[in-house]
Fold this protein.
Amino acid sequence: MKITDVEVLVTSPGRNFVTIRIRTDEGVYGIGDATLNGRELAVASYLRDHVAPCLIGRNPFQIEDIWQYLYRGAYWRRGPVTMTAIGAVDMALWDIKGKALNVPVYELLGGASRNGVMVYGHANGQSVGEAVEAVGRYLDMGYKAVRVQAGVPGLKGTYGVGRGELFYEPAGEGLPAEDAWSTEKYLATVPELFARVREEYGRDVHLLHDAHHRLTPIEAGRLGRELEPYALFWLEDAVPAEQQEAFRIVRQHTTTPLAVGEIFSTIHDATLLLRENLIDYLRMTVVHGGGITHLRTAAAYAAVHHVRTGCHGATDLSPVTMAAALHFDLSIPNFGIQEYMRHTAETDEVFPHAYTFADGYLHPGDAPGLGVDYRDDVAERFPYRRAYLPVSRLEDGTMFNW
Ligand code: CS2
Ligand code: MG
C-alpha cells in the first residue's frame, strides 16, 4: 500500500478545525485532527507545504518509522505546531491501518482494558449559584464526574464560564478579547464554590477544577489545601508548567490531586513532573501531543511513576481527536479520565462518528479504524474565519496568563 495524496482541510462549523486526509493506492484513506486553537493556519501550512510532499509514496503501515521521520527529520523538534502536525499524520495512519485490517484501532493497541471510558463534563455559571445548578444538570445526564467553574465577582469574564451549555468555545473572531484577572478575587471564590457543591450533591460525584495556569506555586499550595475538605478528583493547571520543579512547592503544601499537560507537546515537557511524582494526572492528548504513537510513550512513562492519564478533550479539539483518544483511553492500563466537552450540531454533521455516550461513559465503537469521517459537502458550507483565544491582563493592565 502506498500514500498517493495528502489533503489539508479547513472548515469552521462554529469554530475552526483543521483536518488531514491521507489517501492510498488501495482506496483506503485516514483522517487526523490538526487543530491548534488560534494558530490553525500555521499547522495547515506546516502540513501542506512541508510534510505532505515527504509522505507521498510511503507505506502508511509504517506508522512508527513515519513518526520518527517527521520528528527527527524536522531538525527543529517539539513545539505545538510541529507536534500537532505530526499528531494529525499519526492519527490518520492508525485510521488507515485499522480500516485496512478491518478492526477498530483499540484492537491494534492491545485491545480493551475496560468496558468504557469515564468522562467529565463542564458545569459552569456566572455565579456560584448558577454553577451549582449546572452540576445538577450534568448529574441528571448521568455524568459521574463534573468540572466546576464559576465567574469571579468583580471580574468581567473568566476562564471556563462560557457560551453554550454542553460545549465551551473561548476563541472569538477578530483580534483577541482582553479579560481582566485578579488572583485574590479568584482565590476568595473557589473554596466557597466547592463547599456549596459538596453540600448540595454529597461526596459521590467526582469534582474537578481548572485553575488554567493562573497561580504561583505558593498560591496553588494554598488553594489545594483549602480544597482538601471537598476531596477534588483533580486541580488542573494550577501553575504554568514550563518550570516543572515549581510543582515541588505545590506538592509540599497539599494532597489535592494535580493534573497538568494539555499544552505539552512531547513527553519531555513532563519527565521531571512524572519522575518526582509531582502530579497525579497527565493531560496530554493525541492532537497536540504527537498522536497515538507518542501518547503511548507518554502514558507508559507515566504508568511507571503512578501517574494516570486525563486527556484534554475541549470543544476546540475535533471529533477526530475525541475518537482517537477514546481508542487510546480504552486500551492503556493507567487510564484516569477523559474530558468530554461536546461539539455543536454543525460540527457533528461535518464529523460523523461512532463513539457514543451512556451513563457517564464514552465508548469509541467498533467501526474499523478510528470510527470518524469528514463530510466535504457539509464542511464547505463553513469557510475559515480567523479567531483568537482571549488574552488576560491583571486589573492594573499587566499582561498575564489566559
Ligand atoms: C481547557 C481548555 O478544557 C480545558 O481544560 O483548558 O478549554 C482550553 O482553554 C482550550 O482548549 C484552549 O483552546
Ligand atoms: Mg485545562
About this structure: The pocket of magnesium ion (ligand 2) is lined by residues 210, 212, 236-237, 262 (CB under 6 Å). Residues 80-101 form the longest helix (22 residues).
